[in-house]
Design brief:
Shape of chain A: globular
Shape of chain B: globular
Number of helices of chain A: 13
Largest sheet of chain A: none
Strand content of chain B: under 5%
Number of helices of chain B: 12
Number of strands of chain B: 0
Helix content of chain A: over 70%
Radius of gyration of chain A: 20 Å
Largest interface: A-B, 49 and 46 residues
Oligomer: heterodimer
Structural class of chain A: mainly alpha
Distance between the termini of chain A: 16 Å
Largest sheet of chain B: none
Chain lengths: 339, 293
């Protein structure tokens, strides 16, 4: 395997983080060495820090896998953010009203979140397959619609008198996902995400559906002529993609936040695009990339607190990574064509 | 208040809510007609709003703030333009990257410049001068319509969005036209952002664009990719934004009206199918063929 191809994207991303971070720290009047020390200490420095990084890793893994699945099929799902949010809303709605056995409560929350996200994705799929409406636009619009639907519910029907802001009632502890490390927010959601990555890798590499999906993404016209049912692939792929992102929202509700509000995601659905691109849309590499971005998310807070570098710079750096990697993909293919 | 007074107040509110969406939607229309989808409108409005506040605060001259907003928007427009033409990156991914970058760096620079997160200090605003920008939005819509329909340059620009190879065959570089169109479109979006920060208000706060770039994207579609249509769509969406203020505290949930532009865009995509459509080469990178040279 070509070394440049395998490690080019992660190394490029790392270079951007180091260069962009150093510039931002220097602008903030902070010695970059101190800034990066705070970032690393804040993300890996102890059990609590590492656990929080792994929470963020899991939170990014679901939408990143969702994005990768759709992108591999040539479908631009920029709607992971909205799918995650409706998933979280569905889980929160069940959690706030459930009264039966806890085990089934957790399962019901996870299933509902996948179902809600899946329907949100399938809607874009149907609009694309049956009505020729670009999934780029519809998923983007559905993000905003999801936000307002969720904000209506937490402000109205699901609003808890116990909560200070617009959010659902806190979940009882028996509806929490089991914790991996007591005293932290790290739950088995991470294991679920890793299992999902393995399953997605298998789906893409070893199944007929995965082959058809990749064919539809790489060469839709030949694929169609060889009997691939493109409308079906479109709907199923976007529904699956939405279900994965929605499940991510559900695990955040039962695993980390233990309630639902519209601040559930600080933009995981958009950061996920950067994660997926860094990993070249490969589910197993995405696990590693999500850990890297998870470090940024959790370490960014520490960097802000200890080194006074505003953590928003993390998102600016992610933007540069997306821009450079989008450019790099083209450059790489052009170099290969010349050889 | 008399009925005339109520209507007058509503029209003022309508104009204020329509203008920023209109500028960005006109910018988006210009880009898409040349063949480049601009997902980054939200980021360009953010850049324009932030630059306008910084420049107005630094110089004390609000109109220089408006100019800075235009320049900042144009810079991001040019960035998307270069990426979409010379480097041929995927336009959707590049637009998403621009949004992430613009929103993140504005929040970062806000702390750097004003020493506090969340919002800037207040700066000199355009005051009544902002009505010139409202008028300008309508003038730009009309001018763009004439430009696209009745001038040779407008025809070339439209041809780039439909069939760039034909433009190249006529000896004109379609990539240059696309770059210019997206840069001008970014400038308009930046002006829309500047109108929000120093026209309607007198400060920058995080998240103040609040999805208007995406509403503008919806307006491009709802306006069937024409400048006058985009202006009409901006008025339509502005109407519902203004209505939210009027109906505050009523039984109609404000979220229902806030999500309306996005629902309308999806409905429009489905309903206009077959009658109006996106430019044929919208979003498709143009590659020169060897035979053309």
């Amino acid at each position: 395997m070509n070394v440049r191809k395998a490690f080019g994207a992660p190394l490029t991303a790392l270079a951007i983080v180091v260069a962009g971070g150093a510039v931002a720290m220097w602008l903030s009047g902070v010695n970059p060495l101190d800034g990066f020390a705070a970032l690393v200490a804040g993300s890996l420095g102890g059990t609590g820090e590492l656990s929080e990084t792994l929470v963020q890793t899991g939170a990014l893994l679901f939408p990143a896998l969702a994005v990768a699945l759709a992108f591999r099929g040539g479908l631009f799902n920029i709607g992971a953010e909205g799918q995650l949010l409706v998933g979280g809303l569905a889980a929160g709605a069940i959690g706030a009203t459930y009264g039966g056995l806890p085990v089934f409560g957790i399962l019901a929350m996870l299933c509902a979140s996948a179902l809600a996200g899946g329907m949100w994705g399938a809607l874009a799929g149907v609009l694309r397959a049956k009505f020729e409406a670009s999934e780029i636009i519809t998923t983007l619009m559905l993000n905003s619609i999801a936000f307002y639907v969720a904000s209506y519910f937490v402000g109205g029907p699901l609003h808890s008198p116990l909560a200070s802001g617009a959010e659902t009632a806190p979940l009882p502890a028996n509806l929490w996902l089991p914790l991996l490390v007591p005293g932290t927010r790290l739950s088995i959601a991470l294991l679920l995400a890793l299992a999902l990555a393995a399953a997605l890798q298998f789906l893409l590499a070893r199944t007929v559906f995965g082959f058809d999906l990749r064919a539809a993404g790489d060469a839709p016209e030949p694929a169609r002529r060889n009997g691939v049912d493109l409308p079906r692939i479109t709907i199923v792929a976007l529904a699956l993609s939405g279900a994965i992102a929605g499940l991510g929202g559900g695990t955040l509700v039962t695993g980390a936040l233990h309630r639902f509000n519209t601040a559930l995601s600080p933009g995981y659905g958009y950061t996920a695009i950067a994660v997926a691109l860094v990993a070249d849309l490969n589910p197993l590499w995405i696990c590693a990339a999500a850990f890297g971005f998870g470090m940024l998310e959790s370490g960014g807070l520490a960097m802000q607190a200890q080194a006074q570098v505003p953590k928003d710079v993390i998102h600016a750096i992610e933007g540069v990574i997306v821009l450079v990697l989008a450019a790099r993909r083209f450059v790489a293919t052009r170099v290969e064509q010349r050889v | 208040m008399t009925i005339a007074g109520v209507i007058g107040a509503f029209v003022v509110l309508l104009a204020i809510k329509t203008t920023p969406i209109a500028f960005a939607a006109l910018g988006g229309t210009l880009g898409e007609r040349s063949g480049v989808i601009n997902i980054g409108l939200e980021g360009m409005m953010t850049a324009g709003a932030f630059a306008a506040v910084v420049a107005s605060g630094a110089t004390g001259v609000p109109w220089l703030g408006a100019v800075a907003g235009v320049v900042a928007g144009a810079a991001f427009g040019a960035l998307l333009g270069v990426l979409a033409t010379r480097v041929r990156v995927d336009q959707i991914v590049a637009g998403t990257g621009i949004n992430l970058f613009a929103l993140g760096s504005a929040a970062f620079l806000l702390v750097l410049v004003y020493g506090q997160p969340g919002a800037s200090k207040t700066v000199p605003s355009l005051g009544n001068g902002s009505w010139l920008l409202v008028a300008l939005a309508f003038a730009v819509a009309l001018a763009l319509h004439v430009f696209l329909v009745a001038t040779p340059a407008g025809l070339r620009l439209r041809a780039c969005g439909e069939n760039p190879s034909a433009v190249a065959a006529a000896g004109i570089d379609p990539l240059r036209i696309r770059l210019l169109a997206v840069t001008a479109g970014g400038a308009l979006a930046g002006l829309g952002g500047a109108y929000l920060s120093i026209g309607e208000l007198n400060l920058y706060s995080d998240g103040m664009i609040a999805g208007r770039g995406f509403i503008a994207l919806a307006a491009v579609i709802f306006g069937r990719w024409t400048p006058l249509g985009a202006m009409g769509a901006a008025l339509f969406f502005g109407f519902f934004e203004a209505l939210q203020f009027v109906l505050q505290g009523s039984s109609i949930p404000s979220e229902a009206m806030q999500m309306l532009p996005y629902v309308a865009a999806i409905v429009a995509l489905v309903a206009f199918r077959g009658r109006a459509r996106a430019p044929a080469a919208d979003g498709i990178p143009y590659e020169r063929n060897i035979e053309e040279f």
